Amino acid sequence: MSIGRRGHIGLGIEEPVDGETGGWGEGVASGVYLPFVSESLSLDIEQLISASQKGIVDESPSYSGLKSIGGDIVVEVYPDSFGYLLASAIGQPTSALAGTTAYNHEFEPSQEDWDTNCPIQPYTIEVYRDNGDAFRYLGGVVNTLNVSFGTSEKIMRATAGIIGKEYESLEKTEPSHETTNPFKWDQAVIKIATVQNNDIESFNFNLNNGLVGVPTLNNTSLISRIYRDAARTVECGMTIDFVNQNQYAIFEAQTEQAFEITLTGPAIEKVGETTHYYKMVITIPKLRYTAYPINVSGDGRISSSVSGRAKYDTSSGYAIKITLTNTVDNATYPGAGAGA
Length: 340
Hints:
By secondary structure, this protein is mostly beta strands. It has two helices and 21 strands. It has helices at about 80-90, 245-255; strands at about 10-15, 30-35, 35-40, 40-50, 60-75, 95, 105, 125-130, 135-150, 155-165, 165-170, 190, 195, 200-210, 210-215, 225-230, 235-240, 255-265, 275-290, 305-310, 320-325. The protein is globular and about 75 Å long. About 40% of the residues are buried.
């Protein structure tokens, strides 16, 4: 019997060959392991059914069509391993030493492509399901990333929507997980237009890179490349206690304002390190409310499920930026140190 408790997910960093196209989909052994909750990665094989009439009423023969790799990985957000998902979904970080052993890693969306066949950082994703060899999904990118936390979802979670190139089966590796703690709801401070707001009960964002896998006539049933098929978007959602109409007035005026969400974890307890903490800072320079429903649904307290979009800001050069403070060396994340 196979059980999920004995499973693991590992990532191997794929790299361009000599700075050129060629590294996407080349299998790489796992070097980091995700503290995952669940996964739905799968190989889907298109079924081609012949339309030929052969004098029988039964369905015609079937043939194999396009092979597609996709699905979700749900993780709890830890300060070290989460940076690998960010490096694919948002962009390769700019990393620098912040203390003696603490590093700041700034993940800012890139306007450039990783290479001509794959616009963002790919990984070889190893999924071991407690049975036989591991499943390996090559050329996997984080097309969508949803991050959420709040008074109901007290441990921050992220769901990474994956598009991949190819599947293979290979002997599993031995996992080694980080020993830090996940980010939690009671570590959060949210500022709107630089002023701390104490009325927000939950917050989430969903980044969508708008990618699609493209098959071509190249003597294979796999996709040939991954393309940008739509604008990159960042949709935000939050639950706000209806204590006044200040933010509703902002919605009504359609004023864009800055959001900064900071989660501060425990102190980094390393030799010589005394003033730095595990931290995540989500910076949105311009957030525009798109829906702000206020309705009475019964006898109890009134709150509003607010929707919004992070808009590209020409001054900062991004719509969203995430900064992680941890002890991951500045050369460990894909592309770290050089920026995107």
